[in-house]
């Protein structure tokens, strides 16, 4: 089974856990690492003959246009990670619309074609920001990958569908490809990406991908950030929890990723989840109403499509 490899292309100072540590005005003066780190990742993927989906931050695309063109030229899918890495639920609808539109415009001008996929900063489509789906539909995205169906202090809709669903909103339809989870002891547990790939025992990640493929017959979606493959990045003076999440086991990311790429098949998100995207295009749909916004009520679309 083809799994999805996704890369959120941003700097080490962009994660929202650093919002109180680094002001956007400092972004211009801090040392930059994203281009070298992303190119190293591109070489790693070329060595393993794997294509991936790169959710590129507009701020990065604006400063490194040739990097974005190279990502596409190497056969990867370029998708959108917003412009300034702001949390959707903090921005509100109008600022989110402006941020997303700016980022999509930059990428499409660079590539000369439409960008179909979106991922919000820090999985920040939550029950209080379901309006974001309407804005993404209006902006012309075919799919979104911004919901983590877990309980977490910064993000998550724990009762959301664990499998791709087609969401119908007042503005139209969009496919949501949620972050990968496994179901254990009556709860959803995060699997196979970011800090979970670095911080949890690697045996759990391998088991989770195999379980999703063999027992649940669905692709896993692994996500990494270029800064996670950079153990010598400048360390920022954050609190202990953020430092643990950001810096712990950075040296493990690359070998673990190589191991996953050897053991399982990986490709672009739009290929790994082609069946769900085609089904949605063919009209299969489940409703997700506005009434779910801002409550703990399960979205009415929270089931298998
Ligand atoms: Zn991000």
State the end-to-end CA separation: 19 Å
Return the structural class: alpha/beta
Cofactors and ligands present?
zinc ion
CATH architecture descriptor text? Alpha-Beta Barrel
Please state roughly what percent of the residues sit in beta strands, choosing from under 5%, 5-15%, 15-25%, 25-35%, 35-45% or over 45%: 15-25%
The main pleated sheet reads as: 5 strands, parallel
What is the ordering of alpha helices and beta strands?
A: EHEHHEHHEHEEEEEHHEHHEHHE
**Helical amount:** 25-40%
What shape does the CA trace take?
globular
Question: Going by CATH, what is the homologous superfamily?
Answer: Glycoside hydrolase/deacetylase
- What name does CATH use for the topology? TIM Barrel
Q: How many DSSP E strands?
A: 12
Residue ranges: pLDDT <50 for 5 or more in a row? 286-305
How many discrete structural domains? 1
| Gyration radius, rounded | 18 Å
CATH class: Alpha Beta
Tally of helical segments = 12
Sum this structure up briefly.
With 305 residues, the protein is of the alpha/beta class. The protein contains 12 helices and 12 strands. Strands 1, 2, 3, 10 and 11 form a 5-stranded parallel β-sheet that branches. Strands 4-5-7-6-12 form a 5-stranded mixed β-sheet.
């Amino acid at each position: 089974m083809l799994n999805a490899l996704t890369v959120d292309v941003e700097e080490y100072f962009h994660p929202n856990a650093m919002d109180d540590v680094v002001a956007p005005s400092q972004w211009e003066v801090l040392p930059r690492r994203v281009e070298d780190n992303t190119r190293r990742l591109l070489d790693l993927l070329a060595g393993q003959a794997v294509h991936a989906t790169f959710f590129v931050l507009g701020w990065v695309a604006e400063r490194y246009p040739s990097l974005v063109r190279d990502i596409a030229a190497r056969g990867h899918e370029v998708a959108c990670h917003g412009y300034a890495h702001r949390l959707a639920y903090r921005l509100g609808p109008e600022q989110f619309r402006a941020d997303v539109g700016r980022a999509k415009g930059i990428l499409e001008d660079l590539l000369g074609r439409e960008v179909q996929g979106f991922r919000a900063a820090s999985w920040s489509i939550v029950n209080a920001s379901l309006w974001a789906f309407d804005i993404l539909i209006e902006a012309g995205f075919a799919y979104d990958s911004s919901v983590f169906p877990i309980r977490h202090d910064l993000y998550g809709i724990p009762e959301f569908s664990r499998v791709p669903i087609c969401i119908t909103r007042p503005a139209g339809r969009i496919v949501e490809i949620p972050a990968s989870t496994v179901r254990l002891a009556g709860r959803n547990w995060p699997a196979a990406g970011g800090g979970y790939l670095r911080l949890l025992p690697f045996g759990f990640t391998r088991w989770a991908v195999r379980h999703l493929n063999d027992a649940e017959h669905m692709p896993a979606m692994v996500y990494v950030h270029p800064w996670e493959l950079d153990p010598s990045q400048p360390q920022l003076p954050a609190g202990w929890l953020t430092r643990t999440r950001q810096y712990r086991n950075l040296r493990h990311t690359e070998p673990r990723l190589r191991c996953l790429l050897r053991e399982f098949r990986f490709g672009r998100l739009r290929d790994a989840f082609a069946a769900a995207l085609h089904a949605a295009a063919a009209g299969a749909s489940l409703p997700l109403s506005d009434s779910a916004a801002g409550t703990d009520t399960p979205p009415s679309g929270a089931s298998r499509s």
